[in-house]
Write a structure and sequence with these properties.
Strand content: 25-35%
Strand order of the largest sheet: 9-16-11-15-12-13-14
Shape: globular
């Protein structure tokens, strides 16, 4: 199941980007499960990757190739993560790049590989490599939705975002797709995300924006508190515009571009939460009044990842005691419980160290019966605010993950 309305949008063409999908039948026969991006010569690429120590072979190789620059192709497969596969897995990732490169007339170092799916199994290389010719033959600038579907695993719907900005009579397009529904508490990225623009952006600034945008979006969501072995989020700038290069954080063009980029990243991150495995609620946990960012995030994640809170959300149970318990164990040194206030949407439920005098169970129930819920917490200690987005925890989540390999 999925929460809310996150339809796949009409995606404008990004000059300098072509996409294609193909069927390798890696996990399911006939399924489109391979995606290829082709980028115009001179494109610049930045990205962030999982910090999981068991990072997948394609993550290791993608980081190596990205450091050399001049990237022209990306290849993604779903259905198999090629993670925890040792040296053979690394050889498989390199062979994938080499085969695509040979057919496309580039070097293997100009290809970035990505995989998502079951951990611990070798890629079926004959199937994967057999799909490369069809993918290269099918490259088109308007294949964004097909690509969004092909990278799905337990997702119930494709996730896309598209924003356009006008400047000096020209159009800058920013498109993005992402996938993810489980194993979601990203650490430097999401499970897989790809954002492309025709803007011309300085490489150093592109690197900074890639990290900043991921940090404010994909690094602020959690479905189950698990960080994948394959997380990657890439930002591609083709430079296919006559507008000047964006190379500083000043000026109107930079501000327009920055705001639009953040909009795309956040929408994709929210779409992942709304499609969380078994999710019936979209929950915003907003912590304010903190002394520092780390403190605010500790509290936000303590609440967002508490199994007791998440199951109460699924049951539509306004059990606010679970919320204050999580705040209390979040590790905020010297926290004054009497200064803490907690709201469900706009209903004040906790103040002065206990239940708010104005609160009634009926008010809390009305909030919890909704599909979208805001848990707002004021620590009463400072002026720092952070927000995390999460889901409830349902029977369906257990079923999906218990049956994932069958």
């Amino acid at each position: 199941m999925a929460v809310g309305q996150f339809p796949f949008p009409q995606m404008a063409v990004v000059p300098g980007v072509e996409l294609a999908t193909a069927s390798a039948g890696i996990k399911k026969p006939g399924r489109q499960d391979v995606v290829v991006f082709r980028l115009a010569e001179g494109s610049r690429v930045a990205g962030v990757f999982t910090k999981n120590a068991f990072c997948a072979a394609p993550v290791t190789l993608a980081k190596q190739h990205l450091a050399q620059g001049n990237i022209r192709f990306l290849i993604i497969n779903s259905g198999n993560a090629n993670a925890c596969t040792g040296e053979p897995g690394l050889a498989d990732a390199l062979q994938t790049c080499s085969e695509l490169a040979a057919q496309a007339g580039v070097t293997a170092q100009q290809v970035l590989p990505y995989s998502t799916g079951v951990i611990g199994e070798r890629l079926p290389m004959a199937k994967l490599l057999g799909a490369v010719p069809a993918a290269l033959a099918g490259l088109q600038p308007d294949n964004w939705e097909a690509a969004g579907r092909a990278i799905m695993t337990t997702d119930t719907r494709p996730k896309g975002a598209s924003v356009q900005i006008e400047h000096d009579g020209e159009t800058i397009v920013i498109n993005g797709i992402s996938k993810g529904a489980g194993m979601i508490k990203p650490n430097m990225a999401t499970m897989l995300g790809y954002v492309a623009t025709n803007a011309r952006v300085d490489q150093a600034l592109l690197n900074e924006l890639s990290r900043e945008a991921a940090d404010q979006s994909f690094n602020r969501i959690t479905v189950d508190g698990d960080t994948s072995t394959n997380d990657a989020c890439m930002l591609m700038a083709t430079g296919q515009t006559s507008l000047p290069e964006i190379n500083t954080r000043d000026g109107e063009l930079y501000r327009k571009f920055h705001d639009a980029l953040m909009q795309v990243y956040r929408y994709l991150a929210h779409a992942i939460v709304a499609d969380g495995e078994g999710a019936t609620k979209f929950v915003t946990v907003q912590v304010e009044g903190a002394e520092c960012q780390a403190e605010a995030l500790r509290v936000a994640y303590a609440v967002a990842q508490s199994p007791l809170i998440k199951t109460a959300l699924f049951a539509c149970d306004p059990n606010w005691g679970r919320i204050v318990a999580a705040i209390g164990y979040a590790g905020v040194k010297g926290l004054d419980a009497t200064a803490v206030k907690v709201w469900l949407n706009d209903v004040l439920i906790v103040e002065g160290g206990g239940r708010a005098a104005s609160y009634t169970e009926e008010q809390g129930q009305a909030v919890m019966d909704g599909e979208e819920i805001l848990i707002r917490i004021d620590l009463g200690r400072g002026d720092i605010r952070e927000t995390v987005w999460t889901t409830d925890l349902s029977h369906e989540y257990v079923t999906i993950n218990a049956e994932y390999r069958t």
